[in-house]
User: What shape does this take?
Amino acid sequence: MTAKTVATALVAVLILLGGPALMADTGTTVTKPAPLDWRHRIEAGAFVPLPGETGAYVSPLVEPPVAFDEVIYDWKARLPRDEGFRLYLQVEFSAGAPSPWLYAGYWGDVPTSTPREKPAFADGLLDYDQLLLKRPARALRFKVTSEGRVALTTLPSVGVITTLNNPTPVDTEAYHAAVPAAPPPPDPVILDLPLCAQVDTGGYRLPDRCQSAAVATAMAYFGTSVPLERIIAHTTDFEYGIFGIWPRTLGAAHEFGFDAYIDRFRDWESVRRTVAENKVILPSIRLPKNSGAVAPPYSEMGGHIIALNGLTGDGRAVVTDSALAKDGTGYRCQWLLGDLEKAWMETKGGVGMVICPPAGASMRTVSDLPPFPLEARRAALQTTTTAEARETSPTASH
Assistant: This one.
């Protein structure tokens, strides 16, 4: 069977079994208005001392071009020894009508206490690393407080993405007037990522550490091998007792000398643009039971983080998945685009952590990818492919 025949057969499968959702790369018409994501970074130098609060610094009030009902964020800071900070987020619904300061995470050498409850107020909830509002806000600001053994001398920069999930035509017009259009996507690229398992240097399993294994995969691709236990020390939030908080996962990459940032991917064109820059995307995924996916590598999966190798030109995505390391199927693991769209873009809003290449890093690509294993995947799904049978549990990552 020729490559063209395989591609044609695959497209036929996508159309017959999945419909437009599986053909997300072909410009399918969508009736629901697309969410509006606005990206901004508050540099460390923009924070100023907060009057009346020792060791506290506040950012300027940031007003996106449209209102928002969701916020995700990251921080960048490599702190000197014994320094640490806590981060807080405040939104403003109208002039003079702010929310309370909402706890948004800690970094560095900070005395911790457990358990910590998610901060909530009448108009929303900060769900670990994602602010979910019941009504749109118009502006936001961050506060940093010195919490280490010594006074904070290095302030973080904070990246933020605001989202308006159900915009009106007026909102959409205002957004596009302020945000430049993205360039056309380049040809698909598949990066040759290694598979890092959820094990320590002694070979002992460290379950639920998919986020740390994904960071290890990205760094190893760029030539830096780091034991998983060293990464876990940074990705673990000891107060919430979970391991996959997005800013901490990105912070771990910073600690080992890599630039990294949070992003949202609503379409495959934006994925192609990012991978073509030799960047490794770590998608945050969740595949619910009975999702309608055609041939995923597992029938269901709780919160999970993988590393994205790239896309093919015939409707497939290739990932590196530490949850499938035990049987080796996590290496160059293939997804149908429509299935990964369900697990990533639809279920998790396309949140992805991006690890950037260091200066001079070469791009290594895959050119010998086999056909999609449709029949083998379907047969496996009929036996045992639940998240509990793999190395990652449904509560592994946020």
Observations:
- Residues 1-29, 384-395 have pLDDT under 50 and may be disordered.
- The chain is about 20% helix and 25% strand.
